[in-house]
Amino acid sequence: MMFRKKTDVGSEAVALESTGGLPVPEREGKVKKRINKEEIVGWTLTGIPILGFLIFGLIPLVFSFYISFNTFRGLRLNTAQWVGFDNFGKVLSDPLFWISVRNTVLVIVATILSLAISIVISTLLFQVKRGKKLYQTVFFIPYVCSMVAITFMWQWIFNYNYGVLNAILRSLGFIGENVNWLNNEGSFIFCMYVVLVWGGTGFNIILLSAALTNVNKNCYEAAELDGAGVFTKFFKITLPAISPTVFYLLITGVIGALQEFSRFQVMAPDGGPQYAGLTIVFYLYRLLFNAQGGSDIGLATSVGWILAVLIAGVVGLNFWGSKKWVSYDE
């Protein structure tokens, strides 16, 4: 049964037609008008970040691509001269650039080592019944502290004349004379590995601990009934279950390693012994702010684009390889 009911609201009459109690929608014109207002508001709100990206992201990106094909005298843009691919050729033929690439690869290895240590520590912490939050907080402290301040602390620890490390080793009888940790290539790389691994585990442990809480405990119980040992449960249950988190930490860690700069620049402002502290970004920084007045924006920008290609290649390779070891719940 159909019926029509009219109700006056102010000066307008709203027609309601009900079939089984369902009201008739408002006139099409009013609905379209309301939708248009909502669309305008929506496009306005979404346009703000898009405009910000265009001004501070896309336009500088395109402009930097143009800059990389020019040469400049100092930091003055009005001295631009088109040189084509000469900047890229100079960078790729510079021995210091390849030294910086080698050092950056060593940083990537330190990042992977830090991730492996984080997996072991978070797995052990997962078994702890009391004081787990305290241990996680202790491991996380280096991550929230100032990177520059932490590096200065380590620089003081490794100092040749009054460093804490030399004092402890000398008091224990391990060394007779102070070791010049930061002025030898091998020992400098070892010191930087200590700094990188120590500072990189905290964030990883927090995320991995959260991932471990989501592992199905029934899988462990079933594995124990089948007689599985600790290592079998770790490699067959734990590691596959947290592999998406491990993959995320690997990707972000490798990208961060390719962009490593602050710790090396603070620890060795001159590049370190035999340039052992010269990373790719540090190399770019030295080109851009050359104290001898040989700064060249175009040359430095070309290094940035080479680094961008390296990051894209490494990330793409990681995503391709992840299909073989990362397991996602269906």
Briefly note the structural class of the backbone: mainly alpha
Low-confidence stretches: 1-19
For the biggest β-sheet, the strand order reads 1-2
Total strand count, please? 4
Shape: globular
Question: Hey, roughly how much beta strand do the residues contain?
Answer: 5-15%
Tally of separate helices: 13
Mean pLDDT: 84
Describe the main β-sheet briefly: 2 strands, antiparallel
The Cα radius of gyration reads 30 Å
N-C termini distance? 49 Å
**Relative helix content:** 55-70%
Order of helices and strands: EEHEEHHHHHHHHHHHH
SSE diagram, text form:
Layout: E1 3-9, E2 12-18, H1 28-67, E3 70-71, E4 81-82, H2 86-92, H3 95-127, H4 132-144, H5 147-157, H6 164-171, H7 185-212, H8 217-225, H9 230-241, H10 243-258, H11 262-267, H12 280-288, H13 297-322
Helix pairs in contact: 2-13, 3-7, 3-10, 3-12, 4-7, 10-13, 12-13
Descriptive overview:
With 330 residues, the protein is mainly α. It has helices at 28-67, 86-92, 95-127, 132-144, 147-157, 164-171, 185-212, 217-225, 230-241, 243-258, 262-267, 280-288, 297-322, and strands at 3-9, 12-18, 70-71, 81-82. The longest helix is centred in the N-terminal third of the chain and has 40 residues, at 28-67. The two termini are 49 Å apart.
In short:
The protein is mainly alpha-helical and 330 residues long. It contains 13 helices and 4 strands. Strand 1 and strand 2 form a beta hairpin.
